[in-house]
UniProtKB/TrEMBL annotation:
InterPro entries according to UniProt: Rieske_2Fe-2S (IPR017941), Rieske_2Fe-2S_sf (IPR036922)
Lineage top rank: taxon: Bacteria
Name the record gives this protein: (2Fe-2S)-binding protein
Single annotated GO MF: 2 iron, 2 sulfur cluster binding
Gene3D superfamilies xrefs: Rieske [2Fe-2S] iron-sulphur domain (2.102.10.10)
The entry's keywords: 2Fe-2S, Iron, Iron-sulfur, Metal-binding
Rieske domain span: 45-144
Amino acid sequence: MERKEFLKSLGAGAAFALTFPCVHGCSKDDVTGTIVEEPTGVDFTIDLTSAEANNLSTNGGFILQNLVVIAKNLQGEFVAASQVCSHESYDQVRFVNQDGGIFYCDVHGSRFDQDGIPLNQVDSNPAKAIKVYNTELDGTTLRIFE
Ligand code: FES
């Protein structure tokens, strides 16, 4: 069956939806992620020998756990920050290898240094810090806590 015949067999509505899937979206304002509350009472450990922690074996790598981004920065130190962005509370903060290693939210482009201090202003909103957490290494156990 030819593409044209296939679309015709689906009917006009379905054919339009398949042909123009971005008619109601695909703008810069489309976001992935979820609006969530910032975690409270953070205090947990990670076994660095576990498969889940594999990304922490490399400088610049990070993992997500309990709405916290845990990263091994470019100098090999462990840092942790809230995964919840201070701009509009999307859970999209990640660690990226830019400017010596920063926390970054791709929803609207907020950037934060490793102390959580904002490096830019988004949509003329006053920039606010993201929460950062303490890290403590004991052998192969990494503790993340407030
Ligand atoms: S929610 Fe993170 S930049 Fe807007």
